[in-house]
Amino acid sequence: MGSSIDEILASRRKVEEPEATEGDKFFLLLSGDKLAADFLEVQFSDGMRTCFSYQDLIFFNYDPAEGCIDLEFGGYMVVIMGRGLAPRLFEGIKAKRIEWIREADQKMQDHNGNETFIEKIRIILPKDQAANPEEP
Questions:
Q1: Per-residue pLDDT tens for 41-89?
Q2: Which of 73, 81, 87, 124 qualifies as a cystine partner to 120, CB 3.0-4.6 A?
């Protein structure tokens, strides 16, 4: 009897634990039914990390000519620059399934073995804060 309870608990754990799709060095796409992330974590090459709530995502766009995705979170603009940003990364953001994105720490990571390469991530402050950075 104890083994059947263990099997039930193990199967529930599998359902509750988020799974990643095939590993990508530059972002994590969650898979599973009705699974979505609450925050998008932005990881910079210097180790700094910033999180943005998907609830605050006002709009985003992909510009293939420029090789960038722009995301606006309540006035903060996050600009993701690189290649291979669509369709997986773009569609993952649209479905709120991207848990984190990571900026490259070496130019050598840009090769054919990586479907996606995120060269640079920039966060642009809202205009009011940029104009008066010392005011609270």
A1: 999 999 999 999 999 999 999 999 999 999 999 999 999 999 999 999 9
A2: 81
- Measured in whole angstroms, the distance separating CA 73 from the mean position of its chain's CA atoms is 13
Rounded distance between C-alpha atoms, residue 72 and residue 12, angstroms: 36
Q: Is 122 helix (H, G, I), strand (E, B) or coil?
A: strand
CB neighbours of 44 closer than 8 A, spacing ≥ 6?
50, 103, 121
Indicate the domain borders of the chain.
20-131
Strand partners, 81: 68, 120
**Residue of 79, 70, 82 lying closest to 123 (CA atoms):** 79
